[in-house]
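Anyone have tokens for ABC transporter domain-containing protein? Sequence:
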Amino acid sequence: MRPTLSDSKRLIIKNLKKEFNGFWALKGLNLELGQGEIFVLLGPNGAGKTTTLKLITGLLHPTEGEIYIQGIDIKKEPIKAKSYIGYVPDEPFIYPKLTGREFINLVAGLYNVKKEDYEVRLQKLFKKFDVGEWIDELSEGYSHGMKQRVIMCQLLLHNPELILIDEPLVGLDPKTARTVRQTFLKLRQDGKTILISTHTLSFAREIATRLGIINHGELKFTGTLKELAEISGQKDIEEIYLKLTEQ
Ligand SMILES: Nc1ncnc2c1ncn2[C@@H]1O[C@H](COP(=O)(O)OP(=O)(O)OP(=O)(O)O)[C@@H](O)[C@H]1O
Ligand SMILES: [Mg+2]
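Reply: yep, here.
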């Protein structure tokens, strides 16, 4: 019997493997995330972070293994499973000939956001991320940070339960970066689950309820910062990271 929403984990990954032309980018990843977790995935370039996130969103198909979102098997019910996800890729794309507002509207349509919720939520998000009148200009003229703010708005508009973010802070100014941090902490309080891949260790230290260290396609360690400090014998997050990723 399929677990009900309340008793299911937000995300279950079992023995996930991904092969690209004979190269194993993921070699059997297992992970379970519950409600209200902020899990930060750390690891060197090429470790398999983006691949993991793309497999969860269904942008890539696993070579082996299973993924459940809210207890729903993404292979069996992909559209339903994906309706619970909000995703920001490592290189967010906004159609250049759309305005920010048009882009958000498009995404809201894909997620079937109800008309009565749309304007209220949008105004709240615009306020939170300091979105100005530029939202009605073509996105081709936006700065990196303006695009990132549009991306944050489209991410949250459909009220996702599981939020997946690949490198959230790159290119954000300090104020917007702080807003993003505060937003994640608030989302956590609201019971949302967040999976973040980042190289920004200070951000990981501040925000993570649990961390995972991935290297060569394997999740080598998972735990709280305190637990990883004990395993590595180091105190500072940079030292912990370097110790746990050394081969
Ligand atoms: N479409 C693809 N075809 C072939 N190889 C790929 C493909 N996507 C990823 N890889 C390989 O899989 C490995 C993991 O890549 P991935 O993008 O997941 O790393 P990452 O941990 O996100 O790295 P970074 O920190 O640089 O973003 C790399 O060796 C990469 O070259
Ligand atoms: Mg990556």
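DSSP finds nine helices and ten strands in the chain.
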